[in-house]
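User: These chains co-purify. Model them together.
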Amino acid sequence: MLGAIKGIRSEICPYCFEHFKLGKTPFRCTSPMSRCAPEVDSVLERHWEDSRPMGKVLAGPGRFVRSVECPDCSNKSRKRLCPTCHSDLPHTTGDFKNYVFAVIGAKESGKSHYISVLINQIKKQVGPDLNMLLEPMNDPTIRRYRNDFYNPVYNEKRIIEATQSALANRNVQSPLVYCLTFTGKNLIGRNAIKKAAVLVFFDTAGEDLDDEDTMSTVNKYIYRSDGIILLIDPLQLPQVRNDLGDGTSLPGVNTETTDILTRTTRLIQKGQNIKPNAQIKIPLAVAFSKFDAVDSLVDDQFQLHANGRHIGGFDDADFQATNSEMMALLVRWDGHDLVQQVQTRYKRHGFFGLSALGCNPHGSKEVPRVAPRRVEDPFLWLLAENGLIGRNK
Amino acid sequence: MLGKTAHQFYYTSCKIGLSGYAGFQTRAESTGLALEDRRELERKSGYQPPRDTERATEAGGDLLAEACPQSYKVIQLASGRTAVLQISYSGEDYSGRFGNYFAHGLVFDGRPGDSWPVDLFAWPRWVKALNEAEADKDPEPLPMISLDELAIGDDFGFPELQDFLSEDASRRDDLAKMVSSVFAGASDGRKLLIREVSAVGAMYWVACVLKAFPRTCQAGLTCSTFQFDPRGTLAINATLGETDFLFDEGERKYQFYVFDFLTQNHSALDVETHEYPSTVASWMASDPERLLRFHDFAEHFTLSEADDRLKHVLRLFRIQDGEELQLPESDINEMLDFVATFGTPVAVRLVLQESTAFLAALAKAPVEIWVRSFKRLIGFAATKPDPAVASSFAMAWLEGLHHFVFSELSAPQPLFSLRKTLLESISDTEHLLAISTSLPEQLDRIVDAVPNLDAPRLEAAMAQVLWASMQTGSWPSLQGTPARQLIEAAISVADPTTFTWAMRPVHQSPKNLCHMIELIVSIIKDSIADKEIDAAYGADLQMKLGQDFADLFSETLSQNQLSVIGFLLQDSNFNEVIFGDWQRGLEASQDKMAWHLKYESAVFGQPSNYQKWALPRTINHLHSVLSSKEFREQMCRWVISHRTKQMSKKNAEYVLQVAMKTVTFDPQDTHSDEIASIIEKEILERKMSISSGRAALRIYTRSAIKAEKLPASASAAIKQVDQSTYFEFMLPILSQRLEQVSDIKGYKNAIIPLINYGRAGDFLQIYLLHMKNRSTSERLDAFELAEIGFWLNFDKSDKACSDLEAIEIGARKALFLKIRVANPKTMKKALTFIRRLPNDPNAEIKGNWIMSLETLSAERGSWIQKIITLGKRQ
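Assistant: Joint model of the two components:
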């Protein structure tokens, strides 16, 4: 009975972001290739240009099952595939909901560095504070995070290279998939897993958000996400650049943040078929990155200068304070239209200020020390908005 | 199709480009490049340097270039266009961040000129980074590049590739395996992956693999000289350094064909290294000029995929290049199918013109396979008519004849059946084949083969040579013809066991058969004249020729055979031939007499020189093959038909003598009368030295029986004949004359004339024989009683009986013996008759007879009496 219900349940593929019914998923034979000859998966080839011979695709029975037997080798496989793109679905699919969080922003807004530091922070610091365990779901996630995000910043102490367009680099199209497990005391007081969620992070090349056509091609995940973190480089705001003067190393002028927000909004409206007069329900966290670079422009008494403290739940009071401070700053920095745009189009939204590296690497391109500030705030806010964690009032 | 111009395309991370926003984008392109092509090029232009070199890239400048390998790619766009890309890591982008790269593409409508795409790797005008001075300016459309501007360097020319392969002895085999992998990958989806230790090595490997395939087959041979991502791989991929490839067992055994020159841990190939890979690798390493010629040759085919079918192109090239290949029939058929599908008209013509070599490739196949393939080739040519190929087919067929029939000694029939098909299917081959066959070098080959040929193969050779001679008008001629060469060769190398092989090809044409016999006889006569053979052997050969001539015809004395004999009879040069023919026919016939009569009737209708020449030989031969009776009958026929009158005296005497033996003395035998009459007459007329005694006696038989007085000539004849003839003549006369007598006087009158013919000794034997013949008689009839009386009363003083005295004792003894074994009744009758005879002149003899017979009669009577008495007692 439970299987039948699950079979008709709709899920979203964290790779191609197409909806699918759990009962319709095929499987991939997981026998050693020496035992069951691999073959080219034409679906995988079409979607991902991956023509490597893989384990055979095994058709499902048309209802939810946990495994399917390979007719050739009799191996029972549990590797579930997306019916549309044949990507390997997380093994928790059907048990835990997938939550897709998109990190978007203009070029050089610090998306890659943000993800690099955020994941590390959740693992090392925020997780234990909130009884959460963040674990990569698959080898590609492990490899990609290590190679593209962690190693450059933490080991090689350099800035991450410019993210290539997802059009040219398939790695960029591959999400980072994590399992977030919540632990706590059960009814009899023992430690137990209380719930879990699959988190899917997307890093996006800024230029892929510059073009609406490209967005609709490679950034479908945005309108199918459960939360969006829009990173804005405050150093791109003309008023900020003026206020900082020549003493600060500034990046080149880039796409206007409001343009990206406009395109994102339109993408979501189209993708979710939302009327122009309706608000978008996806929580939007507007986060100003590289906040350490504008410290001098922020009032000393602002709570934004301090790190957040989310112990046992999302610190809602802190959020309310920083949210107000950020909106005030935006107005001061001639960003009132941005606030207006967010408030008008997004039912749930928040403004954040954060620094992933804690320093400005422009010029030296080196990261001598990673000193993150409030990187977890927008993420935890999204978790709270999705009901994954509670709020501390 | 050749692309005559190329669109250019720049892709990099830049501030100003075609997207309108900063970042990775198409910086510039040539006017007219389709948007879809641009989008696809953007997707294919990704670049990630090896991870283990990323830090070095930050050093910039030369170190940057050294550390990050350039990636050259050849890709096929969905639009069908070919793009060649050079992608260079360029370090920092406009924003100062690392990770930028620059892709420069050339997009061709078809093939990039008359070269391999890989040659473009050495194009000196590749752009590797955006010119800083122009980075902030709006991009101008890039100019189109004409083929003339594509001055291709020779970095990857065949000599350079040869040098590369020769640096390490194992590289040739590695290349062959790589090419095999490309073939295998077409079916199992495993792409070729080469891990090299240097970017240059990687490029050379890619160039070697690409140039192992013809220019026309490069469509599917996409490649990348540096590939980072295992996804999005192309057909041929090279990589180096730390990338996303794992080089684990899964990749090596199941996902790629890995050639890892870093660890030397290559994929094991499940497939053998086939002909194509090993050949092209070998040529590239040792004979690049030939490989280049092969690639030029491949231009004649429209095959655009680099798959296993290239082996057909390779084989065709090797054949065309003079190599002798041995191929199974299935491969030949596949090759023809291939040419039919992919051959340009030039290729088809080449293949057909190379039919000779093409079919030579099948030389080790059984003849039936070769013939089938040839027919298929003919069919192929018939569907793609080309007047220029007839000569090739003619030569191919001729080579087949040489090889299979004259060398392999296969049955010739399939070849001649094939010739029929060939002549019917392809115009002009008849004339060309005839000309080719008649070429001196071809004739020499046939003649040279003669010592090894048996009769069927010789016949095939003659058939072909004659056919060609007839087609070219050199037949018939006695001198200098190919047929003459063939026959001379056959005669000179060994005693020909038969000439049938020479005649059978023309045996259905009396005219040509006459010419052939004339030719052979001419050769034999010339050989005799030149003292190459002696006359006797020459005669034997001619007779053998005649015998073989006879063997040509299954039907006895067919119309054709008689026509030829009629021709031969006109010239005494052919006497031996005709005689051999007659001999062979006689030998083969069941009823030799009947056959001979038929032959004689048909052939000897008119007098001819041949008859005179042949008669003694005929008689001798008949004597040896016919039974005595048959032989005599034949002689009689000649006598009755007065053939002997046409014979020499000597021959006629022999025939008459033999015929005379058939003459009987049976009064009812009128045939003997006729024979005897003719014989005696001819002997007398021609004053022959032989005796006509038997014939003469036959004439007097009836007179003798009638006891008429015989003329003196009869007595002479009786005296002349041999004893056997005398017995034969006299015995019936004696019997008939004695059986007519019934008293002693009559007996005397009958016997005295007979004894008077002379030869008393012989007469006694006849008389005793006559007595013996009557000994079984149990009775004593009047003739016998007269006989007893005659001999018991025989008077020696009677002059009329003087000649009988010689047989008196013998006759009486025979009579007495006859009486004493007679039954008692007969014996009693004899006693009674004897007692009544007068005592004189032989009273004593008579008394002895009576006493003996009485004693004998008494003994027999007592014995009988004893038996009767004994029977009664019991």
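The mean pLDDT of chain B is 85.
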